[in-house]
Amino acid sequence: MNSGNDGGCRWRLLWRSTIFVWEEELKQQLLALLSTAQWKRDVPDGWVWDDNDLHTYSVQFGYKVL
User: Fold this and answer.
1) Residue 54 structural domain
2) What whole-number distance in Å separates Cα of residue 48 and Cα of residue 41?
3) How many CA atoms within 13 Å lie on the side-chain side of 3?
4) Does pTM top 0.85 for this prediction?
5) Measuring CA to CA, which of 2, 15, 16, 45 is 20 to 30 A from 60?
6) What is the distance in angstroms between the CA of the first residue and the CA of the last residue of the chain?
7) What is the pLDDT along the chain (66 residues), one digit of tens a residue?
8) CA-CA distance, 36 to 9, in Å (whole number)?
């Protein structure tokens, strides 16, 4: 969904079905959110838990954060 040969990013969102009129605003919100993200090329995707100094996740600590 994300492409850009000139160093920029463009989103080509494909939907399984036609979106409803009321979903158009949600789509615009999604695009606005995506435009604020900072993307790094050639960096593998992954999940990072970065809410404590240990950089490890536990259910107990997750509940404390919530």
Assistant:
1) 2-65
2) 17
3) 4
4) no
5) 45
6) 32
7) 555 555 566 777 888 999 999 999 999 999 898 888 777 777 777 766 666 565 567 778 778 877
8) 11
